[in-house]
Design a protein that fits this description.
This protein is an all-alpha fold. Helix content is about 80%, strand content about 0%. It has a single domain, classed as Son of sevenless (SoS) protein Chain: S domain 1 (Son of sevenless (SoS) protein, Chain S, domain 1, Up-down Bundle). α1 packs antiparallel against α2, α2 packs parallel to α5 (about 80-120) and α4 packs antiparallel against α5.
Amino acid sequence: MTANQLFELLVDRFNMKTPKSLSDPEYKDWRTNLREPVRRRILEIFALWLENYLLLEEEPHIAQRLTDFLSTLKPPYSSTADALIKDIERLVRYYHWLLIRSLNNMSCKFLDFCHSCRYVGF
């Protein structure tokens, strides 16, 4: 299974349809005991994927899709979604900083190499 497929399955599961022909008490029971826990767990899975499984590093294209999905959520999920969006933004800044830092280090090493080459006659 690809990361895109997993993402789609999680979003589809989050947006699960209400079963047809439920009475009012059955609907409330379904919503309380199935839909709400499933939705909370899916948001937890996205958080774990983001923090522990290097989503941005290994599947950066999904970050925008996840941000778009999270930005559509309404209460009671919007506060969790907002926190996840902030985590994505923080991680993007961190990876950007790492990239700039490694490019700077490469430039310094290259300049050191060039400077060393002058001493040996290149």
